Amino acid sequence: MTEDESNSEGLMKRQTTGEDRVRMVARQLSEPRTANWIASEAGWSHEPTKRVLKRLVDDGILHRNESGTHTTYYPDYRRQAIQEAMRLRDSGHTVEELTDRLAEMNTQIRDWKDEFDIKSPNQLRGTLADGSLDADEENRRREIAREWEHLQRRIKIVGFTIREWGFLAPTTEPAGASS
Length: 179
Description:
- The chain is mainly α.
- 64% of the residues lie in helices and 6% in strands.
- The protein folds into two domains: 3-75, Winged helix-like DNA-binding domain superfamily/Winged helix DNA-binding domain (Arc Repressor Mutant, subunit A, Orthogonal Bundle); 79-163.
- Helix 6 packs antiparallel against helix 8.
């Protein structure tokens, strides 16, 4: 951990409550996590974290899955996608700029498909099994696979934002004001 990361982590703990930190961690989840994991990330104890998570589930911000060996929590991915689309729409970028970014992301994925002669991030991960790659190349391919998955998610959100540009426009009229 760098000194800046350490300072910013300390600053976050000094300027936020444990509940605030749990909410921040929970809203940024990209995969299901246990209450213990969330509590650890938030730097808060387990029982109060569970109470906050229960409220977030009750409010529809998180979902709880009790089917495995451990109860896990995960965000409403639809809500996250809509919120991200609204942030993109409100960011000051034009629809043309977002379209250019979409094309860049698609080009990057096509380049990886051509470079490795594969069709998916998991196929790229599968190339690690042949054992002929050095550690640096294995790490590079794992990182590319992670970035590829990230770009696939971004492409969906940016594409949705472009398609729904008008719908996502900020409105000055309160909901329900027009009949």
